[in-house]
Amino acid sequence: MALLKNINVKAKADKNTGFGTNANSYGGRFVNKNGTANVEKKGMHILHRISWYHTMINMPRWKFMLILLLFYVGMNFLFAFVYYLIGIEHLDGIDASGSDWVQFGQAYFFSAQTFTTVGYGHISPTGFMTSLVSAAEALIGLLSFAIATGLFFGRFSKPTAFLKFSQNALIAPYGEIKGLMIRTTPFKNTNFTDAEAKMTLGMSIEENGVTTNNFYSLELELDRINALTLSWTLVHPITENSPLYNFTEADFKNTHGEILVFIKTFDDMFSNTVAIRTSYTFNEVVYGAKFEPMYARSTDNSKTILNLDKLDAFENVTLE
């Protein structure tokens, strides 16, 4: 990527963005598409720099369920192995005439019954060591299910902004000028009110032979709406005061820049304010395009149909 040397002098750089200005210290984009900071933390033990609770709450649903399943199966295998080492004869009710695998399998299912505190009574521990291990396993099982229940509740109750952003930002016609446009829409049965949006542009600028990261607040046509029920196209008019003024398609291709988008809104379902963010690098900006409509009236004119699959749909246009 080339460095931009000549910027619009009317655009004043922001100093309170929270991002560093030394371009040589940054790698890649500032913010990932999912809104997380593109930062990898090192210099401290992983157990100290990673919150297991936040990790379990924020990880994908399939991975969360897989970890719970693997933990459950692994713990039962561990305790079944301990019971097997102590001696199957100390588990009253196990058929000792079966093969070693059959005996281990019965020890495993006894472990599962103990871990879940079901206790069918078909197999029972005899002897001090077996009783001690089964008592410890029952306690661990109770604590584990309490933690799992808390994690399930945390995942379901965590305030989340159920908004999706368009895959690309567009440079589209806007009246007699051009505008930077990004579209967002709610995708679940939620009610969003008092939505606010902010847009920030970050670019690597070479000034006096020194490369710095400069950030600019992009003024929006509308930065606040009362209700976010349909799609919302965020529009930054590219006027003479915009840092993108006189930017050509080649400038977007050859300049290292990133557009940061922040939205916060009140969610009636959570009765709380939720926030979300994303970013678009300049190579994710489509020059000369406009979004296709996402919603239209139903055939019987009784309601409005919001087509979520058209969030990213756009058509190419000619810019003057």
Describe what you observe in this structure.
There is one protein chain. The chain has 320 residues and is α+β, with helices and mostly antiparallel strands. Strands 3, 4, 5, 9 and 12 form a 5-stranded mixed beta sheet that branches. Strands 6, 7, 8, 10 and 11 form a 5-stranded antiparallel beta sheet that branches. Strands 1-2 form a two-stranded antiparallel ribbon. It is elongated and about 90 Å long. It starts with 45 loop residues before the first helix and ends with a strand.
Strand content: 25-35%
Q: In one word, what is the shape? A: elongated
**What class do helices, strands and sheet pairing give?**
alpha+beta
State the end-to-end CA separation.
26 Å
Order of helices and strands: HHHEHEHEEEEEEEHEEEEEEE
Mean pLDDT value = 86
Q: Number of helix segments?
A: 6
Which spans of ≥5 residues are poorly predicted at pLDDT below 50? none
> What's the gyration radius in Å?
29 Å
Per DSSP E runs of 2 or more residues, the count of β-strands stands at 16
Please summarize the sheet with the most strands: 5 strands, mixed
Helix fraction, binned, reads 25-40%
Fold topology:
Blueprint: H1 46-49, H2 52-58, H3 61-86, E1 91-92, H4 100-115, E2 124-125, H5 128-157, E3 163-165, E4 169-174, E5 177-186, E6 192-207, E7 210-217, E8 224-228, E9 232-238, H6 249-254, E10 257-267, E11 272-281, E12 285-287, E13 289-291, E14 295-297, E15 304-306, E16 314-316
Parallel strand pairs: 4-12
Antiparallel strand pairs: 1-2, 3-5, 4-5, 5-9, 6-7, 6-8, 6-10, 10-11, 13-16, 14-15
